[in-house]
Task: inverse folding
């Protein structure tokens, strides 16, 4: 239990340092550099020698370990995940307001539970890009709030709250005349750049409440962005541990993509070429020909790690009657007949053996037939690369809430399984 508590405390610190996908990628790269990884850049030559490396592309990053003795046909063990979470993204001309309020124009990103964002102190975070092409990370700290309408002005609110994304989801950030205010100027000042030099920005809202451990026996963990920084962090911890002990076997790869919550269709998303580009450059450094790469991919495996659903005690009818995962029962093996998850029988057997090797429990998850199933980066990765892939993840309650809930043990168990995977 003490190891699991230490893990989620570290997870909470990682979440706090990662209010946007760009912060999540940069924080991970900095942390891995401290563990002996060398950061590479895509416009530079890459070394071919065995070693530990990391590369960042926008809000995504890929890190890997090439062990001594890696050959032209050595396979990849890939732990894939994503850095983004449902939120609200700042629109162009973001300074709005009326009746003496300063408000922010935001666009819904992904599928957040809108009501969970009400009455929370939020920050703006992301990147500003100046006219010289330089990116500047920014995080404001507590700045915004979506204030809820008082019950005295809507007596039927507890019979069903309805929120219009355009009319009601406009956070306040100050008082004054919108024509005399400049939200982008505030962001520029916080980032230490000149307002007139900003050429573009990708900025989102994030909850600022710190993570908390709670429950009768300190068995629960609450935080924002557990979907899916719980998986990203588990991969980072596993790769850090593997770097200290790995002496051979596969090439260990941690691939954390952006834009999964909106379909992954970008240069830094799983539907884009980022992972394929990196694997091709690693392969070139090992002197692989086309047939060697095909043999290496046939010997490779991918674990797609994304948060899943624990059974909800108040809505048990929404879950499969025979498969009802619980918090602290172990990470999920996610299964779907229609390939929304990629797990198959050989993959399930591989995961079972891996968890036994790591001495961690796991649970199976399948959806209720009457409720459509979500998807992950797993099918995209399997389709692009032809590498056998399974879907796993930490069970949550309140998924896509501004503040999600996990068991204390499950993120640690996922990381233990990932470490066993990396050292194979």
Result:
């Amino acid at each position: 239990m003490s190891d699991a508590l230490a893990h989620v405390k570290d997870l909470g610190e990682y979440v706090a340092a990662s209010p946007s996908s760009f912060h999540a990628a940069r924080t991970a790269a900095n942390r891995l550099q401290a563990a002996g990884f060398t950061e590479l850049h895509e416009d530079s030559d890459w070394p071919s020698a065995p070693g530990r490396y990391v590369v960042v592309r926008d809000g995504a990053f890929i890190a890997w370990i090439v062990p001594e003795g890696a050959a032209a046909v050595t396979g990849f063990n890939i732990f894939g995940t994503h850095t983004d979470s449902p939120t609200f993204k700042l629109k162009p001309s973001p300074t709005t307001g009326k009746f003496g309020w300063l408000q922010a124009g935001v666009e819904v990103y992904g599928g957040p539970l809108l009501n969970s964002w009400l009455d929370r102190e939020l920050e703006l975070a992301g990147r500003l890009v100046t006219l010289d092409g330089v990116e500047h990370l920014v995080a404001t700290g507590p700045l915004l709030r979506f204030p809820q309408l008082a019950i005295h002005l809507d007596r039927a609110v507890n019979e069903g709250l309805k929120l219009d994304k355009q009319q009601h989801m406009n956070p306040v950030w100050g008082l004054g005349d919108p024509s005399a205010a400049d939200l982008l100027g505030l962001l520029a000042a916080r980032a230490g750049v000149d307002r007139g030099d900003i050429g573009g920005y990708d900025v989102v809202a994030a909850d600022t409440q710190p993570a908390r451990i709670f429950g009768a026996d300190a068995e629960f963990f609450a935080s924002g962005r557990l979907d899916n920084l719980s998986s990203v962090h588990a991969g980072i911890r596993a790769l850090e541990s593997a770097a200290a002990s790995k002496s051979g076997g596969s090439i260990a790869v941690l691939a954390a993509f952006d834009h999964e919550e909106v379909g992954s269709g970008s240069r830094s998303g799983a539907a884009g070429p980022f992972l394929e580009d990196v694997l091709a450059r690693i392969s070139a450094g090992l002197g692989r020909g086309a047939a060697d790469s095909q043999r290496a991919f046939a010997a490779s495996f991918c674990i797609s790690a994304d948060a899943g659903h624990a059974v909800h005690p108040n809505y048990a009818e929404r879950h499969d009657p025979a498969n009802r995962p619980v918090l602290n029962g172990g990470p999920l093996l996610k299964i779907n007949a229609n390939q929304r998850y990629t797990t198959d029988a050989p993959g399930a057997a591989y995961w079972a053996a891996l968890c036994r090797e790591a001495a961690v429990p796991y649970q199976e998850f399948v959806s209720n037939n009457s409720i459509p199933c979500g998807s992950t980066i797993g099918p995209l990765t399997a389709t692009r690369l032809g590498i056998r892939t399974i879907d796993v993840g930490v069970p949550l309650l309140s998924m896509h809430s501004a503040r999600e809930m996990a068991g204390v043990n499950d993120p640690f168990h996922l990381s233990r399984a990932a470490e066993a995977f990396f050292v194979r």
The mean pLDDT is 97. The chain is about 25% helix and 25% strand.
